[in-house]
């Protein structure tokens, strides 16, 4: 069997256009180029598969059976082309979303912006004297006094006002 010249020309045009589109930097054109090259590869496998014969599953009839291996290659190439094109579509969509938003950050809610700009949170400035005057609270686990029972001694009062303990 001779290979039809028209199919060879179509295969060459598919490869040429696909490679030309894949050399562009636009992701959409890369995807279209990949699809054209995939179809050109399928046509190449189809043309190289040889002559047609009877079905390999059905055993009746005269003549030689056709080789099922090129058919399996074409099906595998179709599945691989589909998977890579789905991946490229996801990349194209993600790059489009990033280009539209100009940022990939969480937006502030309107109520959060209102609270942040209000004067309700702005209070008086706390000074060191205010911190020293506020009494310190102790944990519930520290019920025992380590100073020997003298809670009003000048040593503990000095430690609470300065924030330091004397050894």
From TrEMBL:
Membrane topology type: Multi-pass membrane protein
Q: Where is the composition biased (Polar residues)?
A: 158-167
Q: Which InterPro entries match?
A: CPA3_antiporter_subunitC (IPR050601), NUOK/Mnh_C1-like (IPR039428)
UniProt region (Disordered), positions on chain: 107-167
Q: Which ranges does the record mark as transmembrane?
A: 6-23, 30-52, 72-93
Where found? Answer: Cell membrane
User: What keywords are assigned to this protein?
Assistant: Cell membrane, Membrane, Transmembrane, Transmembrane helix
Q: Which Gene Ontology cellular component terms are annotated?
A: plasma membrane
Q: Where is the composition biased (Acidic residues)?
A: 125-145
Q: Give the Gene3D superfamilies listed for this entry.
A: 1.10.287.3510
The entry assigns this protein to a family as follows: Belongs to the CPA3 antiporters (TC 2.A.63) subunit C family.
Q: Which NCBIfam families match?
A: PRK07946.1
Protein name in UniProt: Multisubunit Na+/H+ antiporter MnhC subunit
């Amino acid at each position: 069997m001779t290979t039809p010249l028209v199919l060879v020309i179509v295969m060459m045009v598919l490869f040429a256009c696909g490679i030309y589109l894949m050399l562009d930097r636009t992701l959409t054109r890369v995807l279209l180029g990949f699809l054209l090259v995939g179809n050109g590869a399928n046509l190449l496998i189809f043309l190289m598969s040889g002559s047609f014969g009877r079905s390999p599953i059905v055993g009746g009839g005269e003549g030689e059976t056709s080789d099922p291996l090129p058919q399996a290659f074409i099906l595998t190439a179709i599945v691989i082309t589909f998977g890579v094109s789905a991946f490229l579509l996801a990349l194209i969509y993600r790059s489009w979303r990033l280009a539209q938003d100009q940022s990939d950050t969480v937006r502030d809610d309107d109520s959060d912006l209102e609270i942040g700009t209000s004067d309700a949170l702005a209070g008086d400035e706390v000074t060191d004297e205010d911190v020293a005057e506020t009494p310190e609270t102790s944990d519930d686990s520290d019920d025992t006094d380590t100073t020997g029972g003298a809670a009003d001694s000048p040593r503990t009062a000095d430690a609470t006002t300065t924030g330091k303990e004397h050894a």
